[in-house]
Amino acid sequence: MLPDSLLQAALGKPMLVELKNGETFNGHLSGADNFMNLTLKEVYQTSANGDQFWKLPECYLKGHMIKYVRVADNVLDTVKEQEAEFRARASTRGKRPTGPVQGTRGGRGGAAQRGRGGRGRGQ
């Protein structure tokens, strides 16, 4: 499962983020980028030792500071279903039809395909 697809599926949903310094942020994901920088809204921040709390309307978390992210199980289920559908579509794209296939060379047929008459321009 790719982190980018997980974060896109979690947009608007509640999540918990713990930073490397031990602080935690509980809020709704409102934005994410390829560097895993996150924007949360309606945030409750908890200090590393757990004795102080702050309510923030919005916060921006740098991806390199994030230790882990916790999202709801239904978000994980949604992403797993989407990836399964994508893999199923991708596996059927490259398959060739079974049985004899005729007329796959294109062109006008006739003498040009048998090596006579130039480039197939009706000679």
Could you list some keywords that capture this structure?
SH3 type barrels, mRNA processing, spliceosome, alpha+beta, LSm4/Sm_D1/D3, single chain, Sm_dom_euk/arc, elongated, 5-stranded antiparallel beta sheet, 123 residues, Sm
Task: Please provide a written account of the structure.
- With 123 residues, this protein is α+β, with helices and mostly antiparallel strands.
- It has a single domain (3-91), classed as SH3 type barrels (Roll), CATH 2.30.30.100.
- It contains two helices and five strands, in the order H-E-E-E-E-E-H.
- The chain has a five-stranded antiparallel sheet.
- It is elongated, with a radius of gyration of 27 Å.
- The termini are far apart.
Number of strands: 5
CATH architecture term:
Roll
Category by helix and strand content: alpha+beta
- How would you sum up the global shape? elongated
Strand-residue proportion: 25-35%
Element string (H = helix, E = strand): HEEEEEH
Considering DSSP H and I runs of 4 or more, what fraction of the residues is helical?
A: 10-25%
- The number of distinct helices, counting runs of at least 4 residues, comes to 2
Give average pLDDT, whole number: 83
Number of domains: 1
Query: What is the CA–CA distance across the termini?
Result: 58 Å
Major beta-sheet overview: 5 strands, antiparallel
Determine the CATH topology: SH3 type barrels
Unreliable spans: none
CATH C-level label = Mainly Beta
- Work out the radius of gyration: 27 Å
**Can you list the strand order of the major beta sheet?**
4-3-2-1-5
